[in-house]
Amino acid sequence: MNFFDCIIVGAGPGGSTAATFAARAGLRVLLIDKDLFPRDKICGDAISGKSMSVIKRLGMTEALQNSTSLPSWGVTFSGPYGDQVSIPFTKELNKPVAPGYICRREFFDALVFEQAQEAGATIWLQTTFTGFLQEKGTITGVTAKYADGAERQAFAPLVIGADGAYSVVAKKLGINQLDEAHYCGGLRVYYKGVTGFHPQNHVELHFVDEAVPGYFWIFPIDR
Questions:
Q1: Positive/negative CA dihedral, 163, 114, 218, 86
Q2: What global pTM score does this model have?
Q3: What average pLDDT does range 155-183 have in this prediction?
């Protein structure tokens, strides 16, 4: 039987981080994801200061710096009438660790996932969460299906749903995730040969009349 202290559905940065800390604390952890790693996600690829604080706790700062990531030291905004302002994240540009980084999700997510593996979490990849196991109205575990169609069960007193914006875990719980007042689409495209970025690799957010309340972002990426 597959008994664990904690089951986490979704091995993206959130799920893998939770799995890492739980496994390091001595818990028996099962981490489930429908994909294989590395895999890509639509994202701006920017890693904020708040995320950097977690990365430091994970002990993966050096791994991030040694990856294809690009250190970012600030943000630049522009308005509909051409006004522009650049704001540094810090006044100290000689710090060994930048306050922010830009890293493709296919690489960043794999780095965080590796932390969970190294911490000792049990990993089920190419495995789709299909539902909950229940006993007397209490969730006691999950059901899942491998890519080949084989079905499995796992038991734990705690199940964490970290399976993203279209969470199957949330749907199975009847949680409505769509807030129509704060819902929009996003489109990401990579371009080569783009020049004119800030020398400190600022991330850029551009607001134009045709897109408001949406915006365009331009983030430098790769070294």
A1: positive
A2: 0.92
A3: 89
Mean pLDDT of 145-150: 94
For the chain, the residue count is 223
Whether 133 and 152 share a structural domain: yes
Same domain for 109 and 165:
yes
Residue 34 belongs to domain spanning: 6-45+104-177
Same structural domain, 125 and 89: no
Q: Would 57 be classed as within a structural domain?
A: no
